[in-house]
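Re: your question about Dihydrolipoyl dehydrogenase

S., sorry for the slow reply, the queue was backed up all week. Below is exactly what I fed in.
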Amino acid sequence: MKYDLIVIGSGPGGYIAAIRASQLGSKVAIIEKYSTLGGTCTNVGCIPSKALLDSSHHFYDAIKHFDEHGISVKNPTFDFGKMVGRKDKVVETTTGGIKYLMDKNNIDVYEGLGSFEDATHVKISKNDGTSEIIEGTNIVIATGSKPSTLPFISIDKERVITSTEALKLKEVPKHLLVIGGGVIGLELGSVYKRLGADVTVIEYAPTITPTMDKDVSKELSKVLKKQGMKINANHGVTSVERNGDEVIVKATNKKGEEVTFTGDYCLVSVGRRPYTDGLALDKAGVKVTESGMVEVNDHLQTNVANIYAIGDVVRGAMLAHKAEEEGVVVAEYLAGQKPHIDYNLIPGIIYTWPEVAAVGKTEQELKDAGVDFKAGKFSMRALGRSRASGDLDGFVKVLADKNTDEILGVHMVGARVADLIMEAAVAMEYRASAEDLARICHGHPTYSEAVKEAAKAAWDGKPLNA
Ligand code: FAD
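Result:
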């Protein structure tokens, strides 16, 4: 078979590239090595983690917060198997939805491992041992990423686990050790903390979420500690050993002392690595960087003119929505359009409770770049909406250029800020000033009023409700 476009990998990057290319008139094939479509995000990432976060959030509310609302539920309990089963159903419905979209857009789906024969031919090695070669004028590599580990840690997938296993445990750990205080570790740590596990986070950097704005990391750390999570920053893990059902983690703290942590499960969440195993990139002559990422130019084109790469397998944030945007960009570029992504405006979100969300530059980045900026901050506690719901933690911080008032970064911790951040992204896309945002009438009472107030604080230093 000959196609205008072959997409290898059906994650958010790959399946969106396939849909957009088909919408623009291309004959498209997509190859996926697993039996379900949707990639990491749908099967073992964004969707299942949010399903468990939501379930555990309901339980936590029932045991911690119902009472203050005057609701009494006698001894709330949960059925973990049912919770995981629900998560599986959410995943199944979502992967089924992607299959439906492939059919609707006349995209041929091939199940099997895709590997290059040369720059225009891809072999599909199927599970039944047979193989097939298809030809593509253009090819998109969208093979994503896999969890990475430290060289001295062996992941046994039983007690020393990655996020993939953490999403399908048979029991709630008694004491979960989490190596790495980044997004994935904190989200999955929150799930099990809410369900009653002791959770100890061990982070090498001086703060959790070290790449986020410092105020955000500080607030999140404070809130998670209040929820009972133990956070050990400045601890470099040196060994992870199994002793029966126990996992023993040794780390060196800031003073150079050895600290030992003992739990029954250890989640290793130290990042992800780009995944190109089995692709035979050498047969097509596609270059990868030293860290294993496929090298691309500004058009996401590899060194081989008809081969493109998108998503987690290339440079940039490993996020589903970044992968999706890149999928759209490649499809439109191939159709002769002039698409564009503003990488500065890709929001970063953590689905703990309260949620965390950010777009644009951090204070540190602005300082490092020598930008003259001003900051306006507004506490969630001062909002009527927050008092009504009881979600008092967090703040919104708006960073704006001191001379032009243009918004340069917005950082949030609070209820529903995962959704709220898009107001900031839209404003920044249109290069709004802090005053522009402060002058927009916001519904009352909403969490979004914190954005207006923080913008006003950045613009003229005079929030109205603080
Ligand atoms: P992937 O989704 O990794 O898909 C790649 C696909 O290619 C896979 O299905 C793989 O099987 C297939 N493949 C690989 N090699 C071959 C081959 N040779 N032949 C055929 N098929 C192949 N991001 C967010 O934006 N929001 C979140 O809330 C979020 N939560 C996450 C939670 C967890 C626990 C994890 C692990 C990740 C999370 N992410 C989240 C990150 C997100 O999942 C990734 O950024 C996203 O899936 C990347 O998309 P992709 O299309 O590049 O690759």
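The pocket of flavin-adenine dinucleotide is lined by residues 8-14, 31-34, 39-41, 45-46, 49, 113-114, 142-145, 163, 184, 275, 278-279, 311-313, 318-321, 323 (CB under 6 Å). The mean pLDDT is 98.

Happy to talk it through on Thursday.
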